[in-house]
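Both lines are retained for reference:
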Amino acid sequence: MTEDGPLVAMLVRNRFTNDTRVEKEARTLLAAGYRVTVVADGGDGLPAREGRDGIDVRRVSRSGTRLAGARYARHERRLAGLLTSLRPTVLHAHDSNALLSVAVAARRLGVPFVYDAHDLWLGRPRRDRSRAYFAASQLLYGAIERALVPRAAATITVSPPLADHLALRYGLRRVALVPNYPEFDDGARMLDLRALEGVDPAAPIVLYLGGLMAGRGLEQLVDAVALVPEVQLVLLGDGALAPALRQRSADRAISQRVHVLPPVPPDEVVAWARSADIGVSPIVPSCLNYRYSLPNKLFQYMAAGLPVVASDLPQVREVVTDARCGMVVDTRRPEAMASAIGQLLADPAAGDLGRRGAEAVRDRYHWGVAGQRLLDLYADLVPDRSHVYHPP
């Protein structure tokens, strides 16, 4: 980063405490000579401003009226005001809930903005929201996307099906693919899951990384583990589904074999994963967003050298087949997952699958590849910059 480099102002509508994609993109731009400010939502105990590895982080807390619509409008105005005051060279909206404030600030300043679709916003599940709230949200963000996505100077996303969907829906000539690949890891560090409280040091570990939410195949994964008595399941993450998963494990009399453990820092994920035996990416096509997803956890398992059991979705199958690193199955069927887990545990060559996965990450599925694509895109927006990826 240089003191007088062009400024990229990113908006992400979370608290920016554990968002690896935003962090990777910000660090990549910093290493290429940009200045980066990330604007995020505020929260209890979090500073309104902090520096993080060269990234200037600003947080804006919600305040004011209890009326949801008025509170939403006030917060959007405050976000747009802060973004405008930064006077960036480029604005960057992380997901559709950042689009409105970013587009308003970009129009005021006459600068370009990037739309970064981490997910298919209108294809997400309802989860615990009321039907009325969810319907209103769909109408609101449907209108925002129709009005603003075509105005973005560039649109990027994480998987080929998402790119195709956005291009077709909004008539875009190009949607750049910047997959959420992991940063390169030299394999030198391993942290031992078996040393954690409650984990059996002798039994094979089936690992799940990430959020514990409905629709991600976790209920089916617990049922699959019940069919493979020699293994234990470690769920390394948190979320609203955690109590239900514990109850489901108790109902199947496997509580002692299912361990719901808190998430670990992003830079430790692969090191912890290395001590497992199999990584499972069980997301099911319960909504359009999940059907089009290319989960980051798949690449984290591969980076850790684990053979994988993954959802039989076209974009996932393409990666697993290309790397020859595991098996794809219909993860809606617990017996299919159980069979794949059993086969991998019994296969003397399963270690070769893990090694091939790690080699594929080293060769082509690492953030260096995705980061260079991001820099190539920014070269079109800020053409006087040198855009060569250097690991942060």
About this structure: The chain has two domains: 7-181+366-381, 193-363. The longest strand covers residues 35-41. The domain at 193-363 is CATH 3.40.50.2000 (Rossmann fold). The chain is about 40% helix and 15% strand.
